[in-house]
Design brief:
This protein is mostly helical. It contains 30 helices and no strands. It has three domains: 418 residues, no CATH class; 104 residues, Alpha Horseshoe (Serine Threonine Protein Phosphatase 5, Tetratricopeptide repeat); 96 residues, Tetratricopeptide repeat domain (Serine Threonine Protein Phosphatase 5, Tetratricopeptide repeat, Alpha Horseshoe), CATH 1.25.40.10. Helix content is 68%, strand content 0%.
Length: 623
């Protein structure tokens, strides 16, 4: 009788588990409703996808990259897509829907692992379903699921969460560490952000694994057969943990080295200039991340965060107090404080590689939240249920709050996903929400340039001119009004293009100001030689147009000194020499300048675009 009842109950539970898994696996498709059939975004997709589809060279694939993130697994996944969807361009005009669908599959796999992890940590079926569903449909995940270039983020989560699941699931078994290490290796080879999960794994071990984290303080005290004491200050215990995680540590060190090599040109000073000011600024960043998680109505493709320079600034004091209050209240009120603390640390540690101690241009992005999101969702589930329990209210109240919250997340996710089908809409939305973000304006300028090129090919001249004008405006706005402009890798290119647009508007003073920024760049953004030459040549032409041939000759001479064989620089100096000769009363000086012009015209290489003009000048000099 008892056996029959148990079997029946088990049979009922099994289908429920299956349907729960199916619900979690299918829910991410909601994020693709408004963008599933869109083309690739002409932003990073070209570099991340099409540039990786040439002849396969495994040796080069797994070596340190040049000026790129190290993500060989993501590159291989794009190759798999190209094999799976060769039929799609003929049917839909592009195989981008196939790439997004596969990214959605990886995201669904990550959500399923989140579900199983939180179940192992002792969450009830209802709370575990909430955490997994909220992760699966959260609007901040759109940047990962809907943007083909961010496939690496979904893969990092899939393998990173698989690593954490294997570590918690196979406690005490021989396959535990081999599976953990294998999945972790695949995660960091998908994206270096997965490095943040290494301390989460270590923390899980220090807390006693799934058994230690699942028990409340009272249960732990009552448990007489605990597997081992949880004391991270015990030297032998600490050494054993470090030895067990040695492969993870070695993999992490190798990944850090490879990505520092690849990102050498994209590293910028921390916000405010020092590691200390970066830590202060991260108080605001963390607070804004929390707001975006629970009130995701102002999400943007780019964010501006003003650096905090002093711990006495009201902004830091306010954000630090808010974080401390949230942390203290949630940990204090929940029955299993160790688990709540683990959730908080999961959130912060997984964010660690994308906080600003090793600083890259973007201080804050939605996709940086991805790996740490389950941790804070775990905290919220535990906290809300604890409040309901302490208030002696019905548990259905927590369910009543969770259902509309998840539905609201899904609705916002559907709406946000639509923006990722169009580069202009995506960055125009970013500019409206974050008007001081240089990254947002830069993305919009690229979108306008794409529209301008397409309109020109289709002979829609009015649309082309309007897009060109908007592009120039965005570039000038970056230089003139965005405080974080110098954090952008393309800052010098932006300054040059802004100067060219100022020439179109017949504003020589503004043009000169933009071009001179290239000659005096920030120390961490050295200008390439070709860009310095271009700026000097434009300045020389500007001075020549203003009737200042001597100044033009000097500037053109500086350009030639930078690159002696540059045709543009040689022709500019020849033109300036002739103009200066025409205003020089000294006959000897005049002949010397004419000889210099002839010499420069002769030196223009045949392969240069200026060769024909140089030959015409040489012919005129002979006559």
């Amino acid at each position: 009788m008892g056996t029959s009842t148990a079997t029946t109950a088990g049979a009922r539970r099994f289908p429920l588990e299956v349907w729960t898994g199916v619900l979690i696996a299918l829910s991410p498709l909601l994020l693709l409703i408004n963008c599933w059939n869109a083309e690739f975004l002409p932003y990073d997709d070209v570099d991340h996808i099409f540039a990786t589809l040439g002849p396969l060279n495994l040796q080069r694939l797994f070596l340190a990259p040049e000026h790129s993130t190290y993500f060989p697994i993501a590159i291989l996944s794009y190759r798999l897509d190209s094999l799976l969807f060769p039929w799609m361009p003929k049917l839909l005009g592009t195989w981008a829907p196939g790439v997004r669908l596969m990214t959605c599959v990886y995201h669904a796999g990550a959500a399923l692992f989140v579900w199983r992890i939180v179940r192992l940590l002792g969450l009830s079926p209802g709370k575990a379903l909430f955490v997994a569903l909220a992760f699966a449909v959260h609007p901040t995940a759109c940047e990962t699921v809907c943007w083909a270039s961010e496939r690496k983020n979904a893969l990092a989560a899939l393998f990173g969460f698989a690593s954490l699941w294997a570590f918690l699931r196979y406690d005490g078994q021989k396959r535990r560490m081999p599976l953990t290490v294998l999945f972790y290796l695949l995660a960091v080879w998908s994206k270096p952000s997965a490095l943040g999960l290494a301390p989460v794994l270590l923390l899980a071990d220090l807390c006693g694994g799934a058994r230690g984290l699942a028990r409340s303080k009272t249960q732990t005290a009552q448990c007489e057969n605990q597997r081992r004491p949880i004391c991270i200050f015990h030297f032998e215990f600490f050494i054993s943990v470090c030895w067990r995680f040695l492969p993870v540590i070695l993999i992490s060190g190798g990944a850090v080295i490879m990505n520092l090599i690849g990102h050498a040109r994209t590293l910028v000073p921390p916000p405010g200039g020092t590691v200390f000011t970066a830590l202060l600024t991260d108080a605001e960043v963390l607070s804004r991340y929390l707001y975006n998680i629970f009130v995701p109505v102002g999400l943007s493709i780019a964010y501006f965060v003003a650096p905090i320079a002093s711990p006495l600034e009201p902004r830091f004091l306010g954000y630090a107090a808010l974080l401390a209050l949230l942390f203290a209240v949630t940990v204090w009120l929940t029955p299993n404080r160790r688990l709540t603390l683990f959730g908080w640390l999961w959130f912060v540690l997984a964010l660690g590689p994308n906080l600003n101690l090793i600083s890259i241009p973007q201080v804050m992005q939605d996709r940086y939240l991805y790996l740490g999101l389950p941790g804070i969702l775990l905290v919220s589930a535990e906290f809300v249920c604890a409040l309901v329990q302490r208030a002696h209210m019905s548990p259905r109240l927590a369910l009543g709050a969770a259902i509309p919250f998840v539905i609201g997340l899904a609705a916002l996710g559907i709406a946000r996903g639509g923006l990722f089908g169009n580069l202009y809409l995506l960055f125009d939305d970013g500019v409206r929400k974050q008007p001081l973000s240089a990254h947002a304006h830069h993305g919009l300028s690229i979108a306008c340039a794409q529209i301008c090129e397409t309109a020109g090919k289709q002979k829609r001249w009015a649309e082309r001119d309007e897009a060109r004008h908007r592009c120039g405006q965005e570039l000038q706005f970056i230089i003139d009004h965005c405080p974080d402009a110098t954090r952008q890798v393309d800052y010098l290119n932006t300054a040059y293009e802004a100067g060219k647009y100022a020439l179109v508007l017949h504003k020589p003073a503004d043009a000169e100001r933009y071009f001179r920024l290239i000659l005096d760049p920030p120390a961490y953004l050295p200008a390439p030689q070709y860009r310095i030459v271009q700026a000097l040549v434009r300045l020389a032409e500007l001075k020549l147009a203003l009737g200042l041939p001597e100044e033009a000759y000097r500037l053109a001479g500086q350009a030639v000194a930078v690159r002696a064989a540059d045709g543009e620089a040689l022709l500019a100096r020849a033109s300036a020499a002739l103009a200066l000769a025409a205003t020089t009363p000294d006959e000897q000086r005049r002949q010397e300048l004419r000889r210099q012009a002839a010499k420069d015209a002769d030196a223009v290489p045949k392969t240069c675009a200026q060769y024909a003009a140089a030959q015409q000048m040489r012919k005129a000099l002979k006559e």
